[in-house]
Design goal:
Elements lengths: L10 E5 L2 E7 L5 E5 L13 E3 L2 E3 L6 E2 L5 E3 L38 E2 L11 E5 L8 E6 L2 E7 L5 E5 L7 E5 L2 E5 L19 E4 L3 E3 L3 H9 L4 H4 L16 E5 L2 E11 L4 H4 L6 E11 L3 E8 L5 E12 L2 E11 L6 H22 L7 E2 L12 H18 L2
Antiparallel strand pairs: 1-2, 2-3, 4-5, 5-6, 6-7, 8-23, 9-14, 10-11, 11-12, 13-14, 15-22, 16-22, 17-18, 18-19, 19-20, 20-21, 21-22
Length: about 400
């Protein structure tokens, strides 16, 4: 393990190639554990120590002496903590062999940029204007390079390095979509696209060392809001989420939540004309395997925001996220207001990516036995199960 000065804050290290974290518990003993929260495998070293208790930066799970879990905010203050929620400790042994917990056996039980079956679905590989009439461009998808061509007759074509054509390539929702093999699911519909009163803007592209499944799972999950989005809309009042009603139909899974927020994007609230503590209704529309619409309807602020997340698996451990945003309110927007709204959403995503960049394992486990879950995880687990079912269908001979 790397030598670090002992401090109140958690200290990260590496032991026999395994990431570990250590801190001083309330009883004065030094605790050393695998640096992954048992809930969502987030690095515990990104968290903070409060009175000898280590609190995870992702969902606020807290761990005390002996690595025992002492608080799960999503369950409420009086909930019983599951016994299996504790940490994997590193024993005082000269040659410890830490366990990282159960690992799923089949390749399709992990979601990353090389997961078998992803080639049987549509992927938004570039923006429409990146492949204008008569243009060609090269894109990366699932560890391969593809050459896209917009022919003079208006048709689109795509070929990979071995010369074999893609099953199909189409323009949809301002993106060029590629299906390497015959797709098992249709392209996602968006009723609001092009509708009256909706203003379309784009977030800057996010690309690099990211887990494509982890990026998706982060956006499916409302439980992290009070801990990750502390400078934007997060509020402690949202730690305990309402019951999620989930509807599944074909390749889609939807859910609706009404949650409290701190409306720091409400100029009237910042002027003292509205209460800062407000509510918004969130309508999730997941389209497997890697696309999500999230509609935010604001009660006091007024108006709606529709976020369209396109997650692209470039290769294992590398991903891209393009986000289209539609804004609407009855009185419309000035250009400055639209710019402010976009800047706020950029700040929200920046808070997400700050933690996403710290994950050591960039795969998303689709096997529920790999992590520990709470009732607040019902929607994200339902979406994972949908992905798992579709990928197994895609890889069944």
């Amino acid at each position: 393990m790397t030598a670090e000065p002992l401090a109140d804050d958690p200290v990260a290290g590496v032991l026999d190639g395994v990431p570990v974290v250590s801190w001083t518990a309330a009883d004065g003993c030094r605790v050393t554990a695998v640096d992954r929260c048992p809930h969502r495998r987030a690095p515990l070293s990104a968290g903070r120590v409060e009175g000898g208790v280590l609190r995870c930066a992702y969902h606020g799970w807290a761990f005390g002496a002996g690595g025992a879990c002492v608080d799960i905010p999503a369950l409420g203050p009086d909930a019983r903590i599951p016994g299996r929620a504790g940490l994997t400790l590193i024993a005082d042994d000269p040659r410890p062999t830490p366990s990282l917990g159960p690992e799923p056996g089949a390749d399709a039980d992990w979601l990353d940029g090389d997961t078998p079956g992803l080639e049987r679905f549509w992927h938004p590989v570039c923006r429409r204007e990146e492949l204008g009439p008569g243009a060609t461009t090269s894109v990366e998808l699932l560890g391969e390079r593809w050459e896209l061509e917009h022919r003079a007759d208006g048709r689109l074509a795509a070929r990979r390095a071995d010369g074999l054509p893609a099953a199909d390539v189409r323009v949809h929702l301002d993106h060029v979509w590629l299906a390497p093999e015959d797709p098992l699911a249709p392209l996602p519909p968006v009723a609001e696209w092009g509708g009256a009163g909706w203003h379309h803007v784009r977030m800057t592209r996010k690309e690099g060392r990211f887990g494509v499944g982890l990026l998706l799972d982060n956006q499916l999950d409302a439980g992290h809001f009070p801990f990750v989005h502390v400078t934007t809309f997060g509020t402690p009042d949202a730690a305990v989420l309402p019951h999620a009603v989930i509807e599944r139909a074909g390749p889609t899974a939807s859910s609706v939540l009404r949650i409290p927020i701190a409306a720091r994007n409400d100029a009237a609230a910042l002027r003292g004309e509205h209460d800062l503590h407000q509510h918004r209704t969130m309508t999730y529309g997941f389209h497997a395997p890697l696309w999500l619409s999230l509609r935010l309807d604001y009660e006091q602020l007024g108006g709606s925001t529709l976020l369209l997340f396109a997650f692209v698996p470039l290769a294992r451990g590398r991903a891209r996220m393009d986000v289209d945003i539609l804004f609407r309110k009855p009185e419309g927007f000035t250009p400055d207001e639209l710019e402010d709204r976009l800047a706020f959403e950029e700040q929200v995503v920046a808070e997400d990516l700050r933690l996403q960049r710290l994950f050591d394992d960039l795969r998303l486990p689709l096997d529920p036995a790999v992590e520990r879950h709470t009732k607040a995880d019902r929607y994200s687990l339902a979406c994972r199960q949908l992905i798992r079912d579709l990928l197994r269908t895609a890889t069944t001979p």
